[in-house]
Specification:
With 297 residues, the chain is an alpha/beta fold. It is built from 11 helices and 12 strands. The strands form 2 sheets. Strands 1, 2, 3, 4, 5, 8, 9, 10, 11 and 12 form a 10-stranded parallel beta sheet that branches. Strands 6-7 form a two-stranded antiparallel ribbon. Helix 1 crosses helix 2 and helix 5 packs parallel to helix 6.
């Protein structure tokens, strides 16, 4: 089976309906939306954006990338996910992440716990979400959550699959067996509360293969994807970024379209079944065009 491609929407300056429709034409299997308030620029609201993209598409699946567990209750996450599953006519995947960007959490008046606390809180949230999706109710008492929900909806014939973004040995070991799909990221690249470009440049194919092996030890059958930042363009556009990232794994995701596609598709040999692409350089996602028909900038 060929690697699936997911186009991740991150820009409040681009119409999400046009982006999603263009990504569908360009051959992507899914579209997703990042869940941030702000970083260096403003971000669109997760659920409003996903709903608009669902209305603009017919084939692709939709997912958060990833819903930030620091922002909202897992109960609200399930309610929104079921609503999206209904709106999209069964094309939704419930992607939940631990949350990693410190400045937006503290800037919004929310707690930003240390990494071990975020990981434990995340696991409890996954347990709550799994129970609510499976049964429509949940009674849970843990370290971080006290949940008593007798009913949740809207009702769906088929609940959306639960997807977890995992980047460290502890979360892989304790969360991968609980979910329907795993997406891997390099946890050390965001562990200090922002994206660490130096750490990203050091990420290797061997390191990714080791993470896949860790997942397989605890969840032999779970499908595995990976998050990739890409920059598609000529040397003038992306040369400086390539020099910054070097020749390790992420350096292969910067350059001309054919090179980047080959690098992403080669991940299948590691056991990767899906690649979610976000862009370093604006326009890279549609230039990548997995179908072979670029949709333009």
């Amino acid at each position: 089976m060929a690697v699936e491609f997911v186009a991740n929407y991150t820009s409040a300056g681009v119409d999400p309906m046009q982006f999603a429709a263009a990504a569908e034409v360009a051959g992507y299997d899914g579209v997703s939306c990042s869940d941030h308030f702000f970083r260096r620029s403003a971000y669109p609201h997760l659920w409003v954006t996903l709903a608009s993209m669902a209305c603009a598409t017919r084939r692709v699946f939709l997912s958060p990338s990833f819903a930030n567990n620091l922002f909202r209750s897992p109960v609200e996450f399930v309610q929104a996910s079921l609503s999206m599953q209904q709106l999209s006519k069964g094309r939704f995947e419930a992607g939940l992440g631990a949350g990693w960007l410190a400045v937006e959490a503290t800037g919004a008046g929310l707690d930003y716990p240390d990494a071990p606390t975020r990981a434990r809180r995340y696991r409890e949230a996954i347990l709550v979400v799994r129970e609510l999706l499976a049964t429509g109710q949940c009674h849970f008492e843990g370290e971080h959550y006290r949940i008593d929900v007798p009913v949740i909806g809207p009702a769906c014939d088929v609940a959306p699959p639960l997807v977890a973004s995992l980047g460290g040995a502890w979360t892989i070991r304790h969360i991968a067996p609980l979910v329907d799909r795993v997406e891997l990221k390099f946890g050390r690249t965001t562990r200090n509360g922002d994206l660490d470009m130096a750490a990203l440049s050091e990420a290797t194919t061997d390191e990714l293969a080791a993470m896949v092996a860790q997942v397989r030890e605890v969840a032999p059958e779970v499908p595995i994807g990976v998050f990739a930042m890409v920059a598609v363009g000529d040397r003038d556009e992306v040369g400086a970024l390539h020099r910054q990232l070097g020749d390790n794994l992420y350096g292969g995701f910067v350059g001309e379209r054919a090179k980047v596609l080959d690098s992403l598709r080669s991940l299948e040999a590691l056991g990767i079944q899906r690649v979610q692409v976000s862009e370093f350089v604006k326009g890279s996602i549609l230039r990548l065009a997995p179908s072979g028909f670029p949709a333009g900038d």
